[in-house]
Amino acid sequence: MSLAGRAEAPIGRTDRFFIGGQWVVPSSGATIDVIDSATEELYFRVAQAQAADMSRAVAAAREAFDDGPWPRLTPAERAGYLRAIGAELRLRGEDIAEIWPRESGVLYTFAAHAGTGAEAAFKRYAALAGTFPFEEPVKPTAGGQFGMIVREPAGVVGAIIPWNAPMGMISNKVGPALLAGCTVVLKSAPEAPGEGYLIAEAAAAAGLPPGVLNVVTADREVSELLVRDPRVDKITFTGSTAAGRRIASICGERVARCTLELGGKSAAVILDDMDLGTAARSLAQAECLLTGQVCASLTRIVVSRSRHDELVEALAGVFSRVRVGDPFDPRSQMGPLAASRQRDRVEGYIAKGVAEGAMLATGGGRPKGLTRGWYVEPTVFGNVDNRSVIAQEEIFGPVLSVIPAADEQDAVRIANDTIYGLNAAVFTNDVNRAREVAGQLRSGTVGHNALRSDLGIAFGGFKQSGIGREGGREGLLPYLETKTVILEGRPAGYEDTVL
Fold it and tell me: Residues of the signal sequence (predicted)?
């Protein structure tokens, strides 16, 4: 597949918003241009929400929660809708694969699996309807004859998603929120709104009741109105730590619930028994995913000083051979960054690394021959001081920093010496050593010999990498409120229950 002669974006009604189960006309003529990351040309244009549009979306979600059937359905009934939405997304898999590379730069070969991945996520949450204890009996300890823990929907949810992997974020926010019985206002990123339209179309095709899912695209100022609105009970956000701090402070003012999946500066600790060539191939391959625009990227590589030079050489050798190019070309191993400002950001950090005295082992510029598109070379720095800017700040691009350590204890100290705690990895041939070091790393996920994250289990961070978890049972809990009920007798259905 080539860049020339592609069809228009495979979505409809981009001049409208999905609110209250209908495609509604915006309050203004404001629009957002979505630019193809590989060609720098206009791909499509969407309506830009204003204050009135956001308020209308919140009102629809509020009415659907307060007066509609959705929160009063059983979890099993809601699960049926989730499966139907998932099936629609699988059918739209090729449309997702067409949109995602243009918006964010991901390779088509990876994006081609996004539809089946979205269906799998919705099916996993639907399956929880049969296993999760939405009600469970407990023995009272302070009077009463029969106690119950009841987990009820948190209410109206404002879901704010980033531009790097929209459909994955949508699936792991909308899926559990809907299963819990919440209604949702989904706010898409201006750089990547296409998947928001796709989920709206899927929800409509699945017959989701009006107002249960509402979809708008807005800039930061209007997005903040969603966070501030007292009709919204909970915010779920994925994005930068800086934006997360702002959202948390606003939610704190009105004691709104929030789940925050924020930035990372994750460390890979290379133990002395690990083959460095194998480690280098694993790290470089992972960093090519989405051109390093992944919050869980292992970008701080910590290795003993005696093996530092050998690892830098191995990483530089692998990275220098990465084929950067058209994300629709099956020969490409890495595509462009998502936006011009994102490439400016990455290039700025590379310049800081050089200025701070780190050793530029490979990359650092723009690939030759790619005069259009926001491409950057895969880059490796060696002899990086862990106190330096490139070791402490999230770059969100294909830039690796190799940091020398005195020994294993020092490596763990360096790995933990960051405001972040989203992901980490331990490279060793000894699974017991991997488990031991994993227990010392302050991180929401620790992988063995690779970048690993698993939204089927749980994903989220320590420290300033976020609050709460997404994925699996842990990802359902933030959309529920716990109610204690104490009765003077046994309710129907619990006559034979032993407390």
Answer: none
